[in-house]
Amino acid sequence: MAAPLELVLSADATGQVANCTVWEPVTGSVLLTYRGGNTSHRGLAVLGGQYLLGGQLGKNYINVWELQRRDQLQQKIVCPGPVNCLAASPNGLYLVAGIAESIYLWEVCTGHLLAILNNHYQDVTCLTFTDDGSHIVSGAKDSLVLVWSLYSALQVETSRGPEPRYVWSRHSLPITDLQCGIGGPQSRVVTSSLDQTVKLWEICSGDLLVSVLFDVRIMSVAFDPAEYHLFCGGSDGVIYQVDLYTTPEQRERQFHPEQEMVLKGHRNQVTCLSVSLDGSMLISGSHDETVCVWDIQSKQCLRTVPHKGPVTNVFIIAAPSNMLRSESKPSFPLPHFSKHLQGAEGCDGPESGGVILRLGKQQGSEENTYLQRAEQLQSLLGESEGKNLSGLVEQLRSRTSELEEELNVVRKINKDLFDFSARIITKQ
């Protein structure tokens, strides 16, 4: 059997069977289960294709599994408080967690707590990175959506803490979900709220592009890969499909269920949505204790996967190459994660203020260092220049002789013309 290209990760609030279940979306076959505890809503994340992280529901730690050693917890990351939501950067270098009204930012390779972002006034409910990892977007119960530049957040200023790049305050009730599209700092962000609206924003300008009003509260949102459609999970169990390219374009729109696309199959609020990489399938999780797989083209429910409790997390990922190989090991170890800001613990050791580089798995001790390779390249360039220098000198000498001969000819012609003109003038 060929290895699957995509996998679905799902978790429910009880964790009776497993904390997280990994299954194949086409057949529904369960491939892996990760046991131990239960994960909070939007508290599940894959770190660098090597580890699975799950914020323990109601507790102040994050469960960590190696993707291959699914039956054994690798470690627990102790946090300053219960984890409301969790996100890992696409490159696996940074981890952020929403704890109360603050956002904690760790560097994965060192475990250092680099920043605490404190601009929300109530509990943080959702977090995500842009696809290039350059920005963090956060939503909270204070109805605010904040966009943070990762570069700015990492700048250490003793006078004041990091400030968000944008503060989007057009929602009037708590934020329930958000998602970034493709494009890094040029991408768009969709947000949903209990105020029954879904809003589309642009990161590069900070502008609100579209606001869609519904008749029910919206609990979850997702883009399709081409960003032509939005899928919005309602508190009534219905999934609403919004066409982003309708004509004429309207900044303020109201969704009309009788005229637009809806997907019906859940009996309770839809808490999680995720679209497959090719845009053909939609995965939805609900408080009715089921996960549904939908064919987007036909709007039909292909499969219903039961769970033991309200579904808290569902998302679809490209299958990591080592996830289904029990003999493989992570390419990097996880360090101890600090609960205090770097520099606040009196760290005066040799590692304080240093830079740690994570080398690839193929890096070997017999391979030349960067400095050695640079010296070899300089030597080769010097040899090449030495061989070509003598030839260039001969070419210049030859060309100089040709130009001198041409100059002498021009001078002779000029003298002859002057003499001829002088004779004509004197005869007159």
From TrEMBL:
- Enumerate the Gene Ontology biological process terms: DNA-templated DNA replication; rRNA processing
Query: WD repeat positions in this chain?
Result: 117-158, 189-211, 263-304
- Protein name, please? WD repeat-containing protein 18
Give the family from UniProt. Answer: Belongs to the WD repeat IPI3/WDR18 family.
Concerning InterPro entries, the annotation shows: Quinoprotein_ADH-like_sf, WD40/YVTN_repeat-like_dom_sf, WD40_PAC1, WD40_repeat_CS, WD40_rpt, WDR18/Ipi3/RID3, WDR18_C
Keywords from UniProt, A to Z, are: Cytoplasm, Developmental protein, Nucleus, Repeat, rRNA processing, WD repeat
According to its UniProt entry, this protein's organism is: Xenopus laevis
Residue ranges of domain WD repeat-containing protein 18 C-terminal in the record: 381-428
Q: Which gene encodes it?
A: wdr18.S
Q: Which Pfam families match?
A: WD40, WDR18_C
Q: Which superkingdom does the taxonomy of this entry point to? A: Eukaryota
Recorded GO cellular component terms are: dynein axonemal particle; nuclear pre-replicative complex; nucleolus; rixosome complex
Q: Where in the cell is it found?
A: Dynein axonemal particle; Nucleus, Nucleolus; Nucleus, Nucleoplasm
